[in-house]
Amino acid sequence: MLLQSERYQREWRELEEEFQQLQETHKVYRQKLEELNNLQAACSSSIRKQKRKLKDLKYSLQRCKHKSSPEESDLIQQINTQIKDRQNIFFDMEAYLPKRNGFAYKDEYEKFKLYLTIILLLGAVACRFILHYRVTDEVFNFLLVWYYCTLTIRESILISNGSRIKGWWVSHHYVSTFLSGVMLTWPDGLMYQMFRNQFLAFSIFQSCVQFLQYYYQSGCLYRLCALGKRNHLDLTVEGFQSWMWRGLTFLLPFLFFGHFWQLYNAITLFELSRHTECKEWQVFVLALTFLLLFLGNFLTTLKVVHTKLQKNEDEMKKL
Ligand code: COA
């Protein structure tokens, strides 16, 4: 019995020593982890800074290229080549840095759009069916202006974090900000009342489409993130592609319907602008803006689908 208790004591002492050692190692680990996190943050931030400055420099060089002498032209060419090399080096460096922040920000952007879509949907339904006051319409339009302004700011941050958002989708939000701003200044009257219900119904439809878009785009985001090292997992990439095409085929009819509704809004407003009682400049400006939105959205969506189809065909050929 005595022997056994000595054995337990010895075992306990050994465990105790190992535990002390473990605590020490863990302490060092936490210090190193903190150092690593700081180094990662420092690297990521200076890469971002360098990239931004290189982009500005490239733009300035491009501008002064036309007025430069042959020697200066050579120098500009050399710097441009070096900038390209530098960009490749940054790409390699980034492969060893975490990408979680970009993902988290994009995720937050999609969630922000979702919450605001819910609020805007409720607002549009309330204005269309319950509250027939000018002041509530103004609040609704003001919310739209703020929403689109915030989107443009968030999107420029996303782009500087490496998002591939196409130029038009960003401009689309500037144009929408302008449109909501003009709606806000449109004084109440016969013309306003003639267009009001159509606009609110369109806003309700747009919010519903935005729901579907959220489901599709956040689905793409989660799947792409889960793929991570997608080059090594061809099967999963195929899974992603088939999910994307199913989502897109479902979404596209709603998107095109929305685009033609924008065209219909433009036509209605052009007709209203020719009305004998129409005195407000807002009517014609809004008609032009809706037409611009229709053309931009419709043509860009066609281009996106065409590019995706071509990419798909290329990949099929490679297999
Ligand atoms: N708004 C904001 N970002 C968009 C966008 C949009 N309308 N369309 C695409 N993007 C983003 C994507 O999220 C992706 O970002 P990431 O690089 O950070 O992952 C990037 O741009 C590239 O996307 P892409 O692969 O070209 O397209 P997609 O498969 O994500 O989406 C559509 C394709 C057609 C579904 C999408 O462009 C769309 O919904 N367009 C219609 C918008 C519209 O017309 N709205 C008005 C309706 S009435």
Q: Main β-sheet: number of strands, strand sense, barrel status?
A: none
Strand content: under 5%
> How many strands in all?
0
Distance between the termini: 73 Å
Weakly predicted, low-confidence segments: 229-235
Tally of DSSP helical segments: 8
Q: How many domains in all?
A: 2
Residue share in helices? over 70%
Please trace the helix and strand order, writing H or E for each element: HHHHHHHH
Shape: extended
Mean pLDDT: 88
Bound molecules: coenzyme A
Secondary structure category: mainly alpha
Q: If you compute it from the alpha carbons, what radius of gyration comes out, rounded to the nearest whole angstrom?
A: 28 Å
Short account of what is shown:
The chain is mainly alpha-helical and 319 residues long. It is built from 8 helices and no strands.
